[in-house]
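Deliverable D5.2: sample structural annotation.
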Amino acid sequence: MRSITRFQNTPDDVAEALTARIARSRVLYEGGHRFDVVIEEGVLRHRFGTAEEMAGQLRHLLTVMPLASVSLGVTPFGAERTVWPLEAFYLFDNEHLVVETLTAEINVHQPRELADYARAFAELSSMAVYGDEARALITVAIDALSAIAGRRGLFRVRGPGRRRRLASPW
């Protein structure tokens, strides 16, 4: 988040934003909400922040994956593409769409556009892997970050071949 505030030259309110994000995460555990999420494997590999912070983010994905309210798919690098990677978008019950661009958040309610994004999401979902395969991709990304951090002396070795991993606050 700091890289975004730095790039956009906005006030650094990262601590407050993280607190608010953690508070909002309660919807994962409460109510009848359902979250179907598809991310590209590259998202697991592009690092924003330290290796420890990124590893913490990835461990958080592993933590929420078993929740009944969450379906998390990862589109592997080698997947045959039927749809190109798109900008981040959030589709709420096929009634409201939010698209994030570099400079704006676009809210869409037009049925034709909602249908296009719903179709794109279905295609992206069909290219993704889920369950154990998705967990394996996330774990490999965490291990790669651990190797980077280990070279920098940021992980302490605990016994033969065991490491104590430092986690981010969320």
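Annotation notes: The radius of gyration is 18 Å. Confidence is low (pLDDT under 50) at residues 155-170.
The annotation will be released with the project's public dataset once the embargo ends.
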